[in-house]
């Protein structure tokens, strides 16, 4: 695994959604570093990538309400425990659960294991609400997948939430998660 600046020199064999991610970032003039790696499906698999990128990958959880009418992309630090009840209170949505792969592909054009904030560029109708744990905003960098789980990128947190999110026409809701039941 080797850290490189910007997009890959050769796009051969790469999925369109990955290339669209690089096109999107390049079009905004946002600097990013990238690395290719074996498919990473779990936070444990991301540890080696984290070290090479010099950033802790965040957990990207795709959630929905019981009726499957409201969808959320929650970003939290990789080492933080997620408690549904704690989040439900803050966003006023009871009975949150993980959304199915069908909705993930429909709204974000992403498959399980590759969930990423970058998928919001594919949510043109703003169906998915972005939720970001306040602790992530304190970090210099944010690490994520470019819509596939065989590459990872890092972007300055300020660039991601000031420039990239505005260009995606998504606003974020900042939440405070402690991982404790009784909050």
UniProtKB/TrEMBL annotation:
<feature type="domain" description="YbaK/aminoacyl-tRNA synthetase-associated">
    <location>
        <begin position="37"/>
        <end position="161"/>
    </location>
</feature>
<dbReference type="InterPro" id="IPR007214">
    <property type="entry name" value="YbaK/aa-tRNA-synth-assoc-dom"/>
</dbReference>
<protein>
    <submittedName>
        <fullName>Prolyl-tRNA synthetase associated domain-containing protein</fullName>
    </submittedName>
</protein>
<comment type="similarity">
    <text>Belongs to the PRORSD1 family.</text>
</comment>
<dbReference type="InterPro" id="IPR036754">
    <property type="entry name" value="YbaK/aa-tRNA-synt-asso_dom_sf"/>
</dbReference>
<dbReference type="InterPro" id="IPR040285">
    <property type="entry name" value="ProX/PRXD1"/>
</dbReference>
<dbReference type="Pfam" id="PF04073">
    <property type="entry name" value="tRNA_edit"/>
</dbReference>
């Amino acid at each position: 695994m080797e850290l490189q600046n910007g997009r890959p020199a050769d796009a051969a064999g790469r999925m369109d959604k990955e290339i669209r991610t690089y096109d999107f970032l390049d079009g905004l003039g946002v600097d990013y570093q990238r690395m290719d790696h074996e498919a990473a499906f779990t936070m444990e698999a991301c540890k080696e990538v984290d070290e090479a990128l010099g950033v802790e990958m965040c957990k990207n959880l795709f959630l929905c309400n019981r009726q499957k009418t409201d969808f959320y992309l929650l970003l939290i630090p990789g080492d933080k425990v997620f408690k549904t009840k704690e989040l439900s209170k803050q966003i006023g949505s009871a009975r949150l659960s993980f959304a199915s792969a069908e909705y993930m592909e429909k709204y974000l054009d992403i498959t399980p294991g590759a969930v990423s904030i970058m998928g919001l560029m594919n949510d043109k109708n703003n169906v998915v609400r972005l939720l970001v744990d306040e602790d992530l905003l304190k970090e210099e960098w944010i690490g994520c997948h470019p819509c596939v789980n065989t590459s990872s990128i890092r972007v300055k947190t300020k660039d991601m939430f000031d420039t990239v999110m505005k260009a995606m026409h998504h606003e974020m809701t900042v939440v405070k998660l402690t991982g404790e039941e009784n909050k």
